[in-house]
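Structure first, sequence second, as always.
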């Protein structure tokens, strides 16, 4: 499912200027498939909601393919990272740190050849989750609570009259993270349901005022 979504997004992404780049030679979908196989092969017993799998991937390309991908690395890395997250969600896997895909060049590789090095790496401060804002900005979670509200001392500060000064917090829990309403006037919702305290699962959407914030175990 993750690769299917990745393929659809990639088709939109490579329209126009990028279309010629991928008409022949190494295809991004090949890299996505390899990453999904590396995820499956890295499964380890975990204490979270499912087997722990690799979350950091280094893709080594030939010099020729690396040159073809210049200017496209960041966009492609973001799509591959999202494909990895979706694959993990579909299979019930967990991450212990942020998902990242980086590119490297190996002069010994021939055109069309590539390698993927995958590792399980804990996030900063032991964090294993992140909040994704509507604009795509990603905030990594750690051991300290992340506060949401209208005041500037909040890590997520929202200029929305529906949001209380200190509205809610996302806190570390026994297994992952939870969102806690801080006695806000208009309440905090998770997946459309008003909550006081709620354990977060991958893909949950927190609604604070008019702002939707997605939680990801990555």
């Amino acid at each position: 499912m993750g690769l299917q979504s990745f393929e659809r997004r990639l088709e939109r992404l490579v329209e126009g200027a990028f279309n010629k780049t991928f008409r022949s030679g190494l295809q991004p979908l090949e890299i996505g498939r390899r990453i999904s196989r590396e995820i499956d092969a890295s499964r380890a017993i975990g204490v979270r909601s499912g087997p722990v799998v690799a979350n950091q991937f280094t893709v080594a390309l030939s010099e020729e393919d690396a040159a073809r991908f210049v200017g496209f690395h960041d966009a492609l890395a973001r799509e591959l990272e999202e494909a990895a997250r979706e694959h993990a969600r579909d299979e019930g896997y967990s991450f212990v740190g942020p998902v990242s895909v980086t590119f490297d060049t190996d002069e010994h590789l021939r055109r069309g050849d590539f390698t993927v090095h995958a590792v399980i790496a804990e996030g900063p401060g032991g964090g294993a989750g992140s909040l994704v804002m509507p604009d795509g900005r990603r905030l990594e979670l750690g051991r300290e609570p992340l506060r949401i509200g209208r005041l500037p001392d909040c890590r997520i500060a929202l200029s929305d009259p529906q949001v209380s000064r200190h509205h809610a917090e996302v806190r570390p829990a026994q297994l992952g993270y939870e969102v806690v309403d801080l006695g806000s006037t208009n309440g905090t919702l998770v997946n459309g349901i008003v909550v006081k305290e709620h354990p977060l699962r991958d893909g949950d959407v927190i609604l604070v005022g008019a702002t939707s914030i997605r939680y990801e175990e990555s």
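Margin note: The two ends are 18 Å apart (CA to CA).
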